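Inverse folding, one chain.
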C-alpha cells in the first residue's frame, strides 16, 4: 500500500533533473503495462474460454455501474464548473489536442493490449517474466506522476470548492453500487450481489476473491470480468470522457486510478486533476474491502 507513495516521492525529488522528458517516462511504461496486462489475459485459458458464457452478465453490470457512477459524478461535479474549465492535460484549451489524436491514443491502447493477448495465447511466456514487466511499468508511472507532484498540489489548493472534493470517492461509490443494483434487475441477478460486484469499482482481484468465497466460483468470475472490463474501458474511453467533464475519467477508473489507469489519468488531465485521481484511487482502495464485506 505504501510503495506507490514512496515512488511518487522519488519522482518529486528527481523532478528538476527529468522534468523535460517526463512525458516519455509516462508513455512508454503505459504501453508496456498494457502489453503486460494483455499477456496475462492471453495466458489465462480459463478466462478466455468463459468469456462467451459469462461475459454478457459481466458486461451489463460493468456498463450500468460505470454509467451510473459517471452520471452521478458529472451531476455532482457541476457544482464545480469553474474548476472543470481547462482541466484537460491535452484539451483544445491547453495544447490543441483534437479528436484525431484522441482516437489514435485509443487505437494504441487496443493495439498494445491486443498484441499482449496474442503473445500470451501463442507464445505462452512464463508468468515470472510478465509480472516484473507490469511492476516496473507501474513504478515508472508513479515516478512520472511524482515529477508533477509539486505543481499538482499547488493546483489542488487553487481549485474552487476544493474541500468538497473529499466526497468524490463517496459519490463514485454510490453511483457504482446503484448501477450494479439496476443491472441486477435487468439480468435477474441477486440485487445485493450485483450491487457488490458494481461496488468493486475496478478492484477485480479483491472483488473476485470475496464474491467467490461468498457466492461461488462462477459469480466470482463474473465479478472479476465486470471489474476488469471497467479497467479496460478506462483506458479506451478516458480521452473522450474528458470532453464531458474532468471528473468523468476518474469516476470510470474508480479504484484503479491509484495504479493501473493512473498513467491514462495523467495523459488526459492536468497535474492537479491527475493528483486528485491518485488520491481518489487510494481512498477507494481503502474503502472497497470494507464495503464489499458489508454488502456480501
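Residues assigned per position:
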Amino acid at each position: 500500500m505504501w510503495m506507490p507513495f514512496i515512488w511518487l516521492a522519488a519522482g518529486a525529488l528527481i523532478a528538476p533533473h527529468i522534468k523535460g522528458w517526463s512525458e516519455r517516462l509516462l508513455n512508454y511504461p503505459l504501453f508496456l503495462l498494457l502489453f503486460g496486462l494483455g499477456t496475462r489475459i492471453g495466458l489465462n485459458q480459463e478466462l478466455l474460454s468463459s468469456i462467451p458464457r459469462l461475459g454478457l452478465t459481466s458486461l451489463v453490470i460493468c456498463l450500468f455501474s460505470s454509467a451510473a457512477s459517471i452520471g452521478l459524478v458529472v451531476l455532482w461535479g457541476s457544482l464545480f464548473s469553474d474548476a472543470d474549465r481547462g482541466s484537460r492535460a491535452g484539451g483544445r484549451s491547453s495544447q490543441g489536442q483534437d479528436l484525431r489524436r484522441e482516437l489514435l491514443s485509443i487505437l494504441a491502447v487496443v493495439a498494445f493490449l491486443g498484441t499482449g493477448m496474442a503473445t500470451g495465447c501463442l507464445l505462452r511466456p512464463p508468468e515470472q517474466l510478465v509480472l516484473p514487466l507490469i511492476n516496473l511499468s507501474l513504478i515508472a508511472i508513479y515516478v512520472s506522476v511524482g515529477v508533477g507532484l509539486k505543481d499538482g498540489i499547488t493546483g489542488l489548493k487553487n481549485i474552487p470548492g476544493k474541500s468538497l472534493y473529499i466526497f468524490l470517492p463517496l459519490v463514485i461509490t454510490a453511483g457504482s453500487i446503484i448501477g450494479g443494483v439496476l443491472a441486477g434487475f435487468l439480468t435477474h441477478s441477486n440485487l445485493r450481489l450485483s450491487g457488490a460486484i458494481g461496488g468493486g469499482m475496478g478492484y477485480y482481484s479483491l472483488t473476485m476473491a470475496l464474491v467467490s468465497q461468498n457466492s461461488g466460483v462462477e459469480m466470482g468470475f463474473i465479478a472479476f470480468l465486470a471489474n476488469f472490463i471497467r479497467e479496460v474501458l478506462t483506458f479506451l474511453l478516458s480521452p473522450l470522457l474528458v470532453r464531458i467533464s474532468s471528473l468523468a475519467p476518474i469516476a470510470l477508473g474508480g479504484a484503479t486510478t491509484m495504479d493501473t489507469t493512473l498513467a491514462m489519468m495523467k495523459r488526459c488531465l492536468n497535474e492537479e486533476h491527475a493528483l486528485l485521481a491518485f488520491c481518489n484511487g487510494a481512498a477507494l482502495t481503502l474503502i472497497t474491502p470494507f464495503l464489499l464485506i458489508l454488502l456480501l
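Residues 45-77 form the longest helix (33 residues). The chain has one domain: 3-8+19-295.
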